[in-house]
Amino acid sequence: MFLPFVVISGVSDNMADDFSESLTPPVSPFATDSQNDLACARPPCFCCSEVKDEALSTDGYISRGSLKRLLLRLDPAPTEYEKDTVEIFGFPWVTETALVESTKLLFGLFSQKVYRLENLVQSNSHDFGQAGSLHYEAEDLRQQCVWFLQYIKVFLHRFLEPSVSLDAAHPHPYEELESQFPSALLEELFSITLLTGRLKDLPASVQSSFCIQNHGRILPPSWHLLHLHLDVHWSVLEILHTLGQKMRGQVVYAHQFVNLTGENLTDTSLFEEHLRALLCDLTGLAMGKYNKVRPTDALSSNHYSCLCTKELWVLLMHLLQHRSKVLRTESFWSYMNSLLRPLVSGKPAAENSSGLPSHCKDPVGFTWWLITHLAMLGQYGRSGTGLNEKHLGHNWTFVEELLRLTCSPKDGLAEEQVRMHVHCCLSLCLLWEPSTSAVSVLWDYYSRNLNGSFIVPWLGVSGLGTVCKTPLALLEQARSCCAPSPLCSPGHTQLYSSANSFHIFLRVLALCLSQDGAGGVPQRQIKGRIYSKFSSKKMQELSETGLLNFLLLFLVVARQVELEDVANRACDLLSLLPSNCPPSHRTLVWRGQLSLLLLFQVCLLIITMIHLSYSWRRNIFTCLTRLQERGLDVAARAEWLAFSFSETAKEFYNKTTEVSRRLALWGPLGSYLEGVAEVFETSPSLSLSEEKLLSEGFDWLLPACRQSELNSALGFLQTVLAQLRRVHQRSVQSAPAPVWAPTTANVIKERHLVVAAALWAHFFPFLHSLRLSQTPPAQLADAAAGFTLLAFDLPSSAPQDLQPHPVQSIMQCFGWDDMVQPILVTRYLPHMLQNSDLLSSLSSASAQSLSVRSWFRCVLQQHLHKNQDGTDSRTGRALAEQLSELTRLVLRLPEVDALLQRAGLPPTAARPEPTSALETFVKAVGTVYSQLQLLSERSAMVTRALDYIGDILKHIKPYMVSRNQEGIQLAYWIVGCVVKHWSPLLATSKAQQLLFRLVDGLLLPHHLPQQDRALRDSLPLFLQGLSVASSVSQLQSSCLKQQLCSVIHRYLDHFLPAAPSMGVVANHPVLLGACEAAPTPQGASLRRTILEVLCERFLQFKSRAPPPRLSSVLMFLLELLRRNGDTDVSLLTLPLPSLLRCLMLVNEPQVRKTSTDALQLVVERCAAAAAGGPCMQMISALRSFVEENEGVYDRQVYGVLETVAILDPTVVEALIPSLSLSLRNAEHKRGLGKNITLR
């Protein structure tokens, strides 16, 4: 040993007391080397400053392997302390003898370092300039202490041997010291425990270092002091354990302590005392943290103050479990139970476990919380890994005591406490093997409180739990109870907020039932305990909540154990309910029964999935047969449900049932619909007698439903129809039946036919009765479409009145009948037309023509649902949307597409506007007809066209009755388009009758229709079409021409203003119909007819009296002539006599001006047409004018001729010989000689 220390070690004990910090130089010459050595060989210690994500520190005792070496009796530091000397507290010491020879001195130096660190804590200031130096100094002091403690462990392992008797008379001084070393070490360890004291006695400033969150490189001295205390507490236990192992069972006494105090102090007693004090302090720290934990955060809030205390808990667990196995001492749980049992019992704590804080807001809850988190820590292995392993045994004995306290009727704990306790129990079940006794204790509690709501008021809505509104939701909740979330997942830690205590208990129950899958004794015991709690009286006492809890309980049990047995017992118990139970109870009963049916289907689905494996195919039919033999065919339960449903539906249908009662009855009835829909949706094959649920109760229910209720019923029907078709198609498209089960496909098809027959019998008649309703339900079309597609898939299932072509029969009822409302047709037909398979089967021309006619009618009647003020109603908006889709599909029909392509008018828009699309279609039909040459083809086209439009006047009649202005305008415009574009077609013998009806009904009724706006828009179309038709027709041309003249006369007179107005005349519909940019023969023919009507009806003078509204008529005539560039002289001269007479007889300036302008226009165009010479037609007209008027209006006639001569002198010059002869004849008749004035 180094000489100075030999002297020191040989001095008396009093020198140890006088040993002060002055012996350690402030700047040791070995300090730099010492720090480097420590940096290279830093011993394990508690350090959480750089640890994140709840992982154990890499510098800790577990990660560095210290715990594993301790338990395996290996060298604590195999690569350290191998030199002859070791540097401790800045001085070199002989490695093999220092601790024996200088025990007190080394421990004295250790105490000085602790005192120095405590002084740094007390002198710590908030000066950031000193924070770094204080940190490094405190860290150095702590590392020196830890280094010394590590040296003690290594020394004990390497150099300590059990003491033997000293036989020599004068033993060596070292041998004497060595024999006394265990006792001296024990005394020094005891002095260390007195020096450091208890964790709970640390100042608040030091304990607050547990809460340092933002860990950094610079830490306060208090943090280092606190973690040094943790190092000391663990090292004392580790050293005592190693000392006991090295002494091989010999008890080590602290002789000097015994001599001074008279009390025994052994290594075992010190270990026990220090251990219990440490456990008590750690529990006290956890208790302080629990007082700030909300119940909702119980499992997510850890019990340790920092990760170092977490590691300390893990170290204690493994050390005590190891000692329990090797030394037969108490286990970790035994220590904790003895510490916590007095706390939960309320009795005074034992003397050796005193020191727990007296204030705890909930001792039982704290105990549950602490036990649960300690059990979680028990998953850590000796190396800090293996989080899912079970290194720590269970503690069910004490937990069952806690359960009895929780479930005790005397204490009457609130739901918020019970929920947290049961939540902890569930966590323990996931960590340990579930306990049948624990489940029994819990079931005793919940069987007494089955009617409880288990609500935590302060949780609000989230605390109400899940409301199971459907059987599938109820079954899903049961499934979630049978498959609890993993232990540390959010689904588990947040269970307090999402489930009540009863639901958490069901998870515990499911875990316990699942541990014995073979139906062993624990399962039978639990089932027996559950069954025994339900009697007739108990069932009748169940409230609505209690009944729901009952159903959920049996669903959970049924999922985990024998389904048939549990389902039968549940049905038997439900039959004990009173027959006059409230509708809400009936709803729950049906919901529960349907949930059981769904559970049966889940079993069938699992077995059916075996079919995916080829090796199991041979057994699938056998499995299905055994399912039915075992009672998995749900016919009996379905019949019971259907009977109960029918009785309720009859009461719902009864007219004497009060309104309030009907509203209450709809609750179970609606729930039945939802539940049966879920049964069908989840059924893989519809082979478990599901058709029994479609009973005659629907015959009573459907007619009694109001609108909202009917929508629910029709939605249910659609679900069932769709599932039946889906299952049937899947069975048809699957592989053919194998030779070992040839009848399987036939059996499945028969079951599908049975289900279809129930649907046809109980639903279709009601749908058929609604088809002519003025306000059909929105979903009626969808349901009818479902039946149509069902008839397409299973035609033999349809009733006889729809045979032999059920699809066409149903489409006639709901899609092609003119009596059905457009809102129904436009929703029904798209279902049919977008089904390619069905469309290909309806490739006949008649089916497509009927679909086009329905579309034509719907476009025509699209404004039937307008509001009185002209705004769109909800039905109108729905009709517009549906009509747009129907238009898109109709234009894709082969027949329609061929017409459009042939006419060169293919649709360009993806979703064409219906009215525009109809106009295009009408144009296409007219264009194609004009292209046809063969008489047979033209005749067939006429027939098809008439089929397209149907009885169009009948379609328009609703508009006329309701005086729907927008609808009337659309109707007139569409009919006008038909008359214009189909004029050659309508002129045929087949269609003339329709044309006459259209003209008589719309344009020439007995009373003039007050539809000026509609007529202004459509009259040009009518006039143009009628003009063409009258010129094309061979047989009825005179009748059509007469009708055309009548239309022109009526509306020319109707729209002609009383006073001349250029704005009114310019927009006259007759004028607009006659005008065209480039003259055509068809347009000229119409203008000729208009001029004829104008001259015959509006420009005829009675004697000298002019016709009424002459100025307006002449203005119309002038505009007609001006807007059209006609060059036909015969057409131009038609109004000439009338114009000449106006100039002759009327002196009104406006009339004369208008007449002169019109005459000038006629004369100039006739002169232009005569190519430089006089126009003979005009000369003839003027000659007739002179001959008719010369005897009466001689002066006026020559005045008019004078005006004409100004416009075209050649015409008048050609008339001079005739005028001279006429003058001489007049003079001769007069007998007065020459008329100088006229000459």
From TrEMBL:
Domain of life, source organism: Eukaryota
Subcellular location: Chromosome; Nucleus
GO annotation, biological process: chromatin organization; double-strand break repair via homologous recombination; replication fork processing
Keyword DNA repair: yes
One cellular component (GO) term of this entry: nuclear replication fork
Pfam short name (any one): MMS22L_C
Keywords assigned: Chromatin regulator, Chromosome, DNA damage, DNA repair, Nucleus
Domain Protein MMS22-like N-terminal: start-end pairs: 43-601, 611-773
Domain MMS22-like C-terminal: 881-1239
Entry similarity comment: Belongs to the MMS22 family. MMS22L subfamily.
Function as written in the Swiss-Prot or TrEMBL entry: Component of the MMS22L-TONSL complex, a complex that promotes homologous recombination-mediated repair of double-strand breaks (DSBs) at stalled or collapsed replication forks. The MMS22L-TONSL complex is required to maintain genome integrity during DNA replication. It mediates the assembly of RAD51 filaments on single-stranded DNA (ssDNA): the MMS22L-TONSL complex is recruited to DSBs following histone replacement by histone chaperones and eviction of the replication protein A complex (RPA/RP-A) from DSBs.
Protein name: Protein MMS22-like
Naturally occurring in which organism (per UniProt): Nothobranchius furzeri
Lineage: Eukaryota, Metazoa, Chordata, Craniata, Vertebrata
